Every structure is written in structure tokens, then in C-alpha cells.
Amino acid sequence: MKPIHQHLREFWWQDRSMVALLVGLVVVIFIIYPMGGLGHTYGWLLQVCISVILIAGVGAVARTRATTWLVAGVAVAGLVSRWLVFLRPSPERVLMDAVLFALVLGVLAAVVLVQVFRDGPITAGRIVGAVVFYLLLGLMWANVYTIVVLVRSDAFQFPVAPRSANELVAQLIYFSFVTLTTTGYGDVLPLHPLARTLTNLEALVGQLYPAILIARLVSLELMRRQADK
User: What local confidence, expressed as pLDDT, does residue 23 receive?
Assistant: First the structure.
């Protein structure tokens, strides 16, 4: 019988894994997080969904023993920190959770990018993976903004002051994707120089992503079709 991590790895490196991850991210980012402040039930649902995403992502990098232990250790630490924040919140735990979660999201984004640009034909799953990478970027940047706010409470100006850690993250996720897509409504404003620098950097990445990475996917498919002919 195959170990569990081998089943997770085999599932991850199939196209349908990208669809599953996309669905999970869409539910967390656009449904559960915005409603996290509406009741305790949404809080439990948010923690469960994030836990499932983190646990499934461990299998993505389970290629060597050292890599497996490293990523599994980060994921487990992130899960423990997230549940501690949910059950017994404190400013120190919220800050540690934001740092660990940003690290885990960065690892997942890197693995997804490798999956998207692996050798072989450009499939629908790889296109979905490109969307997943984009969502992971926005979510990772939101956690970086959270770290900045927890260190400097006046780094951002909010239309309504967040009353909890979940409300803070929800507002910063909204701001992150507004910045990534360069929509710029102006209701959340970066005030600190570091916050403004990170905002400019995210907006630049949001513009370069379709111009470089998506164009690269299209060129790879055109090259494959030409080689087939």
C-alpha cells in the first residue's frame, strides 16, 4: 500500500488537483473570509477550509525526505498557530500566524508555478493552475500587509476599523486584490512608506503577470503545435 504522502503527491501533479485547489481558494477568499465577522460558525468553517488546503499542499513537495520534513514542519506550525489564534487570540499569535501563513502560501505558489510550466502540452489544468497562482499571490500579499499592520497599526487607513483579526485580514485581502488588479477604489489607503512600497510592488506584479507568464504559456503551446506539425 502506498504511503499517504505519495497519494497526495500523485493527486497534486494531476490536472484535477488544480481545479480542486482553485475551488478551495475561491471559497476561502471570496465567500468565507468576507463573512468571517458575521458569526462564530463562519470562523470554524474558515479554519477547516484553510487546514484542508495546507494539509493537501504538503504532498506537492514530497519529493525528498528533507523537503517533505521542511514543508510539513512549516505547514504543521502554520496550522497550530492558526488554531491557537482562533481559539485563544493574542497580538503575538496573530503576528506569528501571519508570518507562517505567508511562508506557506509562498511555498504553494512556487510549487503551482513549477506545475504550470512543466514539460508537456498546455492543458486546461495548467491554465487553471495559472489562475491558482494568481490567487495565491493576492492571498500571500494580504498576509504581508497584515504583518505590516500588526507591527505599525497606522500603516493603513480603513473606512471602518476592523474589530478582529479575521476582519483585518478580510479587509486586507480585499485591498490586496484591488491592488493586484490595479482597480484602486481608494477606500483603503496605505500610509506608511513600507506599505506604499509593497502596494506599488504588488501592482507592478499584477501588470507583469499576464504580460509575461500568461504570454509564456501561450508561446509554449504555439511552439508545441509547430513542433507537432
Answer: 82
